[in-house]
Structures are given as structure tokens and as C-alpha cells.
Amino acid sequence: MRAGEILKVHRAWHRPLTFARGSAYVFVLLLAAAWGYLLLDGDSGFLDLFAGKTWQNAGRFMGQLLGLDSGATPAFLQPGQWWATGKLAYHTLAMSVLAMVIAGLGALFTFLPAARNVSNGDLGGTPSRAGAGFYYLLRLFYTFTRAVPELVWAMVIIFFLSPGILPGAIALGVHNLGILGRLSAEVVENLDPAPARALRSSGAGNLQILLYAILPQALPHFITYLLYRWEVVIRTTVVVGFVSAGGLGREFRLNLSFFHYDQVALIILWYLLLVIGVDLLSAWLRRLARFN
Fold this sequence. Notes:
Blueprint: H1 3-13, H2 19-40, H3 52-65, H4 79-108, H5 116-119, H6 129-147, H7 150-157, H8 165-189, H9 194-201, H10 206-240, H11 247-257, H12 261-291
Helix pairs in contact: 4-8, 4-10, 4-11, 4-12, 6-8, 7-8, 8-10, 9-10, 10-11, 10-12, 11-12
């Protein structure tokens, strides 16, 4: 090996440890530890993946989903069942829209004071103790709402509201408010402060800075995050449905409990259609927001 190559190897090994390099090393160690546990521990169940009985059970379950074991016509081949389940799909869609209205409005009115550069005056405002206190209060609120899972929120809300789409929508909306608010606040923290400071130096007020410097930069990102969380909420409605929050999720739990697997397959198909439809609609809305 040449002297130059030896010097390069020496420099590579003695390169200062950065956060990214350290994170990569920790990730590799955790990955090795996880696979070591799966391969060496006899109780992990990893070897069951290669057992013939496991694949026989999987094939039997797929046959039940397709209705091959019963003499009756599967639910997904009956137009009447599609119509009946379609009403529940409509309720699921309504639940997701209501949830995003709750999350979107809550985040829209709170994510600006939850940004550090707004509360400390870096975007051209005047720093104050009240703004700093409000900042920490909102950040704590965001952490609490997103730390509690949607299912737990639904279990709590169902105690004082009648079963239906409303408690499910509130549970999903409260949980996603914390996620959407945190993401939007971080967008504001990464904004270029030059336009806001230029307006402030020209004598613009707080409302003018908000309308002409902050919101035009932050709103496209806010809409993108809102539409993305809507796609996630469509799938999460099945979780809140397990506590009788309405929609396809409740019917999924009931059919699974009574071993009506062909009905479960029909509900899965409806979820697939909803997710594809919402994905296409949100992609079109994102393009519309980008061009405008």
C-alpha cells in the first residue's frame, strides 16, 4: 500500500466523530443486537416463519378471507353487501374529514406562537415573557396530545359521548392536532427571517408581517402536512372503531370477533379504495396549492 493511501486510511479512521456518524454507528449496533436476539433466542418465534404449519395456517386464513371454505357466496361478490358497507365507508370518510377540520383549525390558530423565532422576536417582533411562556405551554400541549394514542383518546371520549363518528373524529383530531401543530411550528422556525425583518424596518405592523412575510411561506407546508395526515387518519379510523367509534372500524371488529372473514375482506377492500381515493385527491390538492 502506498504512503498516500495509508495516510487516507489513517485520516478516515481518525476523523472527528460527528452526530451523524455517531448515530449511524448506534443504528448499526442496535440492528445487530436486534437480529442477534431474533436468531439466537429460541422464544422469539423467528424460526416459526419457516415452519410448514405456519404457512398452512396462513393459507387457511387466506382461504377464509376469500370465502373458499363456505358454500355461500362471499360478501365481496354480493352487490347488496357492497352497498351496505359503502354507507359505513361514507361514515369513515366523514369521520376523517371532521377529524382533520378539528386538527387543522386547532393547529392553524396555535402553530405561530408555538414557533421559537416568533415568541423570541427573531422574525421582527418584540420578545416578551408572555410570548415565551405561551411558547412552552403550546409545546407541552402538542407533546401531550400526540403522546396519547388515538385509541386511548377514543376510550376516554366515548365515556361522555354516544358511540358514533363524533367521538372517533374528536379522538383523531386531538391526536393529530399535536402532530400537525409541531410540524407547522418547526416550518416557521426554519423560515428565512429577512422578509419579516425588512417589513418591520419599513414600519409594518404585526398583522402585516404575518400576512405578507410568514403565512405565504408557511401555508404551503401546512397544507401539505394537513393532507398527508388526512391520508394517515383514513387508515387510523379502524383503530378507533375498536371502541365503537363508528364507521368501518367498528364493523371490522365485530366481523373479526364473529369469524366472518369474507366480510373482513370486503371491509379491507373498502379501506383500500378510500386510501387510494384520498391519496389521489390530496395529490391533486397539493399540486393546486403549489401552482397557486
